[in-house]
Amino acid sequence: MSAQRIDGKAIAENLRGRIGAAVGALEKAHGKTPGLAVVLVGEDAASQVYVRNKGIATKEAGMTSLEFRLPADTPEAVLLDKVRTLNADAAVNGILVQFPVPDQISQQRVIDTIDPAKDVDGLNPLNAGRLVSGLDALTPCTPLGSVILAKETLKDLTGKHAVVIGRSNLVGKPVAQLLLKENCTVTMAHSRTADLPAICRSADILVAAVGIPEIVKGDWVKPGACVIDVGINRIDAPEKGEGKTRLVGDVDFAAAEAVAAHITPVPGGVGPMTIACLLRNTLTAFCRQNGFVEVEV
Ligand code: NAP
User: Fold this and answer.
1) CA–CA separation, 78 and 111 (whole Å)
2) Residue 29: is it exposed, middle or buried by C-beta count within 10 angstroms (0-12/13-18/19+)?
């Protein structure tokens, strides 16, 4: 048996289309469009690509994209002032500071300074706490995208045993909370978990968010499971030529594909969902800030 590949690119495109339609309808009704501000500190090449792609997707969805680029030696106080200015700007509905930030800046202080109502990355402790409490919250984008993929694939997740490998605030913990909200029975695994392969083998839904290339082997996967691979790892690919690299996930895709019923590829699985969910959060934040009825997309 070969698993069905979950087409994150197509699902994300579809979601972005629905968001664009909702933005158009809201503009027609209220004469306003959502605004997303992205702040980049420094010259990190990968971050520049992410920020550019976010800007393009924001405009494609009919939203206003504001980009702020600050030099790598920006003092923390200057960045925090920038965030406070954006907090106070009514035309800005969502704020995203691209991480990582240079060493002189505390990532946590940046997260703490963003107005929770505009925290479209969902990392502010207020949003994290609201998610745990089962209240409306802006939710981190990659976890949200991962769970949407599982729901699009399996429809009802009720009663499934979900194993989440990884317990970061950015991915593992919010994924677990979202799966709990979908009535899964959730097990969280991490670097100190005893007999990880056995725990993974009991998973109907296996989410890997570790950051170790292909750590999840084929025989860790329960036959018929749904595998969501969040990992993005660049490894050497001498078969493509000297100095060449390729992207792999945290799951040994070829081996797991032979056992699972559904699996996300890397690239083309969870990755495209992250920007789509950023737009979704910006739309949600815009509706809440303006007192508009929230659009289900
Ligand atoms: P992270 O903060 O480094 O967390 C990694 C987690 O994996 C930790 O909880 C760690 O456990 C656990 N872990 C490490 N080694 C392990 C092992 N041998 N066995 C079991 N668990 C182990 O990473 P992250 O930010 O959550 O990201 C995880 C992966 O997702 C990375 O590959 C990252 O590139 C990718 N990612 C993708 C997207 C996307 O858009 N698709 C977005 C964000 C992240 P401890 O807590 O015990 O140390």
Assistant:
1) 15
2) exposed
Query: Which amino acid residue places its CA nearest to atom 17 of ligand 1?
Result: 191
Pocket test for ligand 1, best of 188, 190, 212, 279 (most atoms within 8 A of CB): 190
What is the 210 CA–ligand 1 centroid distance (Å)? Answer: 3
Please give the pLDDT value at position 296: 87
Number of H helices, E strands in the chain: 10, 11
Tens digits of residue pLDDT in 63-119: 999 999 999 999 999 999 999 999 999 999 999 999 999 999 999 999 999 999 999
- The domain made up of 141-272 has a fold known as Rossmann fold (3.40.50)
For domain 29-115, which CATH number applies: 2.60.40.10, 3.40.50.1100, 3.40.50.300, 3.40.50.10860? 3.40.50.10860
Mutate to test the pocket of ligand 1, among 210, 230, 233 (most ligand atoms within 8 A of CB): 210
- For the cut 90, the answer to whether the pLDDT of residue 290 exceeds it is yes
The pTM of the full predicted model, rounded to 2 decimals, is 0.97
Distance in Å, CA 272 to ligand 1 centroid: 18
Locate the ligand 1 atom nearest the alpha carbon of residue 212 and give its number: 32
- Same-fold call for 29-115 versus 141-272: yes
Show Cβ contacts of residue 127 under 8 Å, excluding neighbours closer than 6 positions: 116, 119, 137, 138, 139
- Positions marked catalytic: 54, 98, 121
Q: Which of 85, 96, 101 is nearest to 121 (CA)?
A: 96
The structural domains of the chain, with segments of one domain joined by +, span 29-115, 141-272
